[in-house]
């Protein structure tokens, strides 16, 4: 179900009482939404809301809700959450709530995920956007929670032109309507296999970032990332060599290049190591 939540009519249950859960509660309170209760899998969760229930998730505690808002630490594959989905309840995360409330910002969103390097690429991409003169918000799985960022921006009305989001596979599970101007999966390696059945299911969660984007940025050197190619979308590749954005060694120096045109001597980067040169290529492509 991809319909927008209705803050005046829907009844909400928040699951997770960590930092993200706190930001979700603050956002819903700002929206004057009806929060039935907060659930947390810890037996004695922090008291972030007057009506909070700890311990194993029980469907009885969400049966009267219209919308379930999950923190990233709670999997959509939990039996109770799957039962909620089958029952027709909306299951969203903080980034989905953010996505449904930024249309009036008229900002372009850049989405970044991957097993390794996403924080570096997110920070660098934000720096490049700011250096180019754009009002830029960097948020998500890095630093500021997206709903805290939303509240700050709505209070100042200083809207960004570009939003750079670092997104985990956990966050991508519950994002349905976020529209990306460009998006990338940097790489895939074995990670979070305590949450996913295998590497392919983990990769599938990462590939959700391309469900609603205008432009794909793909790592040519990663087989699983290459398999995420969407033929209907324009694409740019980054790679160690022979790609739209690649490295070139000339006169014992390594350069970042775009279509074989030299852009920057890697010695001028504050980042060191070939893996970081590749990260810089991804940022340029985005």
Question: What would you note in describing this structure?
Answer:
The structure is a single chain. By secondary structure, the chain is an alpha/beta fold. The protein has nine helices and 14 strands. The strands form two sheets. It has a nine-stranded mixed β-sheet. A five-stranded parallel β-sheet has the order 3-2-1-4-5, sandwiched between helices. Helix 8 (223-226) links the parallel strand 10 and strand 11. Helix 1 packs parallel to helix 5 (146-156) and helix 4 (118-131) packs across helix 9 (274-285). The longest helix is centred in the middle third of the chain and has 14 residues, at 118-131. The mean pLDDT is 94.
Topology record:
Layout: E1 11-15, H1 19-30, E2 34-40, E3 52-54, E4 67-70, H2 79-86, E5 90-93, H3 94-99, E6 108-113, H4 118-131, E7 136-140, H5 146-156, E8 162-166, H6 169-172, E9 182-185, H7 199-207, E10 216-219, H8 223-226, E11 235-239, E12 245-250, E13 253-258, E14 261-265, H9 274-285
Parallel strand pairs: 1-2, 1-4, 2-3, 4-5, 6-8, 6-9, 7-8, 9-10, 10-11, 11-12
Antiparallel strand pairs: 12-13, 13-14
Helix pairs in contact: 1-5, 4-9
């Amino acid at each position: 179900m991809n319909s927008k939540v209705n803050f005046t009519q829907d009844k909400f249950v928040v699951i997770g009482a960590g930092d993200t859960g706190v930001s979700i509660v603050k956002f819903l309170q700002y929206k004057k939404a009806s929060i039935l209760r907060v659930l947390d899998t810890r037996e004695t969760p922090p008291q972030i809301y007057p009506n909070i229930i700890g311990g194993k998730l029980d469907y009885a505690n969400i049966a009267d809700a219209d919308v379930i808002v999950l923190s990233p630490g709670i999997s959509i594959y939990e039996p109770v959450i799957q039962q909620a989905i089958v029952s027709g309840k909306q299951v969203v995360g903080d980034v989905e709530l953010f996505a449904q409330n930024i249309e009036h910002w008229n900002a372009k969103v850049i989405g970044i995920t991957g097993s390794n390097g996403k924080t570096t690429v997110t920070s660098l991409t934000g720096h490049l956007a700011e250096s180019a003169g754009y009002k830029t918000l960097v948020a998500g799985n890095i630093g500021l929670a997206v709903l805290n960022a939303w509240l700050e921006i709505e209070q100042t009305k200083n809207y960004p032109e570009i939003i750079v989001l670092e997104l985990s596979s956990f966050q991508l599970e519950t994002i349905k309507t976020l529209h990306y101007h460009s998006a990338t999966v940097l790489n895939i390696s074995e990670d979070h296999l305590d949450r996913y059945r295998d590497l392919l299911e983990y990769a599938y969660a990462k590939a959700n970032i391309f469900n609603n984007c205008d432009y794909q940025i793909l790592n040519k050197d990663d087989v699983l990332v290459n398999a995420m190619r969407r033929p209907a979308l324009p694409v740019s590749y980054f790679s160690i060599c022979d790609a739209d954005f690649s490295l070139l060694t000339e006169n014992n120096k390594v350069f970042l290049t775009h279509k074989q045109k030299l852009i920057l001597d890697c010695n001028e980067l504050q980042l060191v190591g070939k893996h970081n040169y590749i990260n810089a290529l991804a940022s340029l492509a985005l």
